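S2.1 Query sequence (Dihydrolipoyl dehydrogenase family protein)
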Amino acid sequence: MQRETDVVVIGAGPVGENVADRARAAGLDVVIVEHELVGGECSYWACVPSKTLLRSAAALRAARRVPGAAEAATGELDVDAVLRRRDFWVSDWSDRGAVDWLDSVGIALERGHGRLDGPRRVVVERSDGETTTLVARHAVVLSTGSDPVIPPIDGLALSRPWASREATSVTAPPRRLAVIGGGAVALEMATVFAGFGTEVTVLARHGLLGGMEPFAGEAVADGLRGLGASVRLGVDVVRVERRPDDEVRLELADGEVLVADEVLVATGRRPRTDGLGLETVGLEPGEWLDVDDSLLVRASTNEEAPWLYAVGDVNRRALLTHQGKYQARAAGDLIGARATGRPLELAPWGAHTATADHSAVPEIVFAEPECGAVGRTAESARRSGRTVRVADVDFGSVSGAGIHADGFAGRARLVVDAELGTVIGATFVGPDVSELVHAATIAIVGEVPVDRLWHAVPAFPTMSEVWLRLLEALGRPGAAEGAAAGDQAASPSTGTTDDDDEEPAA
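Output structure tokens follow.
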């Protein structure tokens, strides 16, 4: 069979769904191709199940930090209930609801493996062996995502290691879990299983969370140890063996042998571009797809009459669902504009560009404690040639944090371009700090002058007061020396700093 349509999207995860929806909203006929579940990795094996698995133990720990609630939170975590809640949020790994949504908005679904067969042509191979050829009048969008990398450690691939899918779809936690890796997936899953009572050992070749400020990884290492996990840094796993009794043995470079029931590997991702037919349009199979800010694939076949786009993980700009959906909105709107003759907005920060990928990518690691960051670290900013000012604040100086939890431990950092006077990076570490990141994202995207931020008054008593303390640490132009109160500790009797003279709210 051969069928014509306006747009073909290969990959029906959240990113592909967003491209399809925006192109459909422009009045185009759209076909989306998926060989697994509509909703993709994020919905069934990544973001949704991992955060659901994390939440229950985090809520219990939060209650235990607040007197009054702590006395009631004396029981143990109900792991079976956590897993049932996870099953609900992944719809028991059924995509019926997602398929119904496609039907409701008029996006056609082709079940099967899609591959390019020359410009604007996509062959879909169904499970029954039948094929359909889709011919796109306007665009083909590749949104196939990424897969975990299994490093070439002797015996590892034969030891039936877990990757993120196996970890998030677990039906019963193992007694002992070894985690190889020091990034977000490794640390979130280590936090999940430590919360379940599993004996967790994290093995990282370097530090933790290498893309964030150093204090973020240090805090998570301490947090995991506080949960009873072992965190081993600067170690190399050289051999892995699953024994006949199903026990996994991991040999380290120094000869030490560790024993676990399962081993989780979280050491990176690779693009799902094998078997995608890239060679039919002059591209290399198995490679990440290079795109410009309008998400057009850089290829000779795409120069005269643009038609091939790549969004989400597969272009390696930011391997995060929210950033992929941001790209998808820009690409879908651009495809619609090109097809209908509407003006194109391709300048930086235009409607049809993914400019934020370069400078304002927010990331949250829901470990113990939470770590949230956006923009540049101090070191990466300096390496790029910028002159920077850095403000560091301990959350102990923030009244709202002290009320939020007794002994609240955390740290915040702003990185400011000294010449431009704008925020270019922010990091927050501590319990429940994830909601602070969006304010920093807005400041960076909006290029808000730091002097203007003094007029964005944080409500009292909230953790957002950390913004005032950060500004005080930077110093306000024109203020008398020593006027800042950012380094004053909260008064244990009132929960306020000495410069807070307002009446408590009713």
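DSSP finds 14 helices and 21 strands in the chain. Residues 484-506 have pLDDT under 50 and may be disordered.
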